[in-house]
Design brief:
6-stranded parallel sheet; transferase; Glyco_trans_20; 9-stranded mixed sheet; binds adenosine-5'-diphosphate-glucose; globular; trehalose-phosphatase activity; Rossmann fold; alpha,alpha-trehalose-phosphate synthase (UDP-forming) activity
Length: about 450
């Protein structure tokens, strides 16, 4: 969500979690940057006069709030304080348990009135906090699903009605945009006309805003001496191997079990490659207190064990699994030395890892093997090998084609990807979205 204050040109950004974590330090508090797609997408923000509002991620005792406010103010941020139980019901149970799966085309959700009530209360607390705003915009970072998935949600009309309280609504792709417009028409009787939705006597602008990354940040990081040293170390260590990289939050939407199944089929079909390739899979811990995510972690660990158990030798393993966060320098070095990037999302609003990989491949022209169910596939289809992640044979084939692709074909496909990623940056996205927001206000 983004808004401009009525009297000033200050930009207000509101998201459930702040892009910062607060921790006690030396009797006071300190704020450090946290990770995720939204944080990355807004890294290129060219506005310096902004305030980011959100929940700090933990319950903060009333008497400590002054020092937390102080730590956050230094980072252009302010906390929306929530009691632990309310925050858990709102975030883990309704947002992660009902909304997130529905938006990612999953029909199995467990709805109950208590969590819905908490969700509404938290939204009211946020709304009160930014109530002086005149114009505001809503940007959806997930897919918006086809109606068969959306209409199953008992409170779908209330949610649509709430989102239509914005003046401008942004989506990643034409598909999500069309699904949303269709839902507003069918369920609320709203009238859709070009890029506008007419509802309750108001006109709401909605559009596709292509989200991107700050390519220069990656180019600059690659040039840093310690990253160059790390790149050389990795190249020496894996000089006889084709490196396949995967970077995903540990989330069922990212299709990690599907990736492991497909990789297993790939190795079963091409056992001669088991000592010639290595899949380095970084799975960033996410939503670890939600049971579904704990089960997922156990499932992925089991599959990793089965694959390495079958194919690792005392000298080499075709699979390296890293279930923790890695530094930005290390991430950049790994992207740079990899010949292939494998992304297997079952559904993904966009997927910025695809763009980050491309930004680090100026020299190597690596191949992007990309699930057709990512938003990114809508834009990067000509430069990547697309596949359906539920089809392990198809995944294996796409991976084999990537690993064995000729240099000249790699270069040709890379040029396509590069042109998309360098044109559609995060700066361009914020300018387009905020530019429209400002035009509407005026
Ligand atoms: P995410 O689901 O979080 O984002 P994604 O777009 O892949 O997914 O972005 C993940 C981000 O986390 C990347 O920028 C990546 O570099 C970063 N990251 C990876 N490893 C990290 C680490 N160790 N430490 C810190 N950061 C790390 C949601 C939607 C996506 C949509 C984005 C943006 O689910 O579909 O593309 O928002 O709109």
């Amino acid at each position: 969500m983004a808004a401009h204050t009525q009297n000033q040109r200050k930009l207000i950004i509101a998201s459930n979690r702040l892009p910062l974590s607060v921790k006690p330090k030396d009797g006071s508090y300190e704020a450090t940057t946290s990770s995720g797609g939204l944080v990355t997408a807004l890294k290129g923000l060219s506005y310096s006069d902004y305030l980011w509002l959100g929940w700090p991620g933990v319950e903060i005792d009333e008497r400590d709030r002054g020092s937390v406010d102080e730590a956050l103010a230094k980072e252009n941020a302010a906390a929306v304080y929530l009691e632990e139980n309310l925050a858990q019901n709102h975030y883990n149970r309704f947002s992660n348990g009902v909304l997130w799966p529905t938006l990612h085309y999953q029909s199995e959700v467990s709805f109950d009135n208590e969590t819905w009530d908490s969700y509404q209360r938290v939204n009211q607390i946020f709304a009160d906090r930014i109530s002086e705003e005149a114009a505001d915009g809503f940007s959806l970072h997930t897919p918006f699903p086809a109606d068969d998935f959306w209409r199953g949600l008992p409170v779908q009309k209330q949610l649509l009605d709430g989102v239509l309280g914005s003046d401008i609504i942004g989506f990643h792709t034409d598909e999500y945009k069309a699904n949303f417009a269709g839902a507003c028409g069918s369920h609320l009787g709203a009238e859709v006309e070009g890029g506008n939705i007419h509802y309750n006597g108001r006109t709401i602008h909605f559009d596709k805003y292509v989200v991107g990354i700050d390519c220069q940040r990656f180019a600059d990081t690659i040039e840093e001496p310690e990253v160059q040293t790390r790149i050389q170390e990795l190249e020496a260590q894996y000089k006889d191997k084709t490196i396949i990289i995967g970077v995903d939050r540990m989330d069922y939407t990212k299709g990690l079990p599907e990736k492991m199944e497909g990789f297993r089929v790939f190795l079963d079909e091409h056992p001669e490659l088991s000592e010639k390739v290595v899949l380095i899979q970084i799975a960033i811990p996410s939503r670890e207190d939600v049971k579904k995510y704990q089960d997922l972690e156990a499932e992925v660990s089991k599959l990793v064990g089965q694959i390495t158990g079958k194919y690792a030798t005392p000298q080499s393993t075709p699979l390296l699994y890293i279930h923790r966060s890695v530094s930005f320098a290390e991430l950049t070095a790994l992207y740079s030395v990899s010949d292939v990037c494998l992304l297997t999302s079952r559904r993904d609003g966009m997927n910025l890892v695809a763009s980050e990989y491309v930004a680090c491949q100026e020299a190597r022209h690596g191949v992007l093997v990309l699930s057709e169910f990512t938003g990114a596939a809508a834009f990067m289809k000509h430069g990547s090998l697309l596949f359906n992640p539920s089809n392990a044979d198809g995944l294996s084939k796409a991976l084999y084609d990537a690993v064995t692709m000729e240099k000249k074909d790699r270069k040709k496909m890379y040029e396509e990807l590069r042109s998309f990623v360098t044109t559609n940056t995060s700066a361009k996205w914020t300018e387009a979205f905020l530019g429209d927001l400002m035009r509407l206000r005026e």
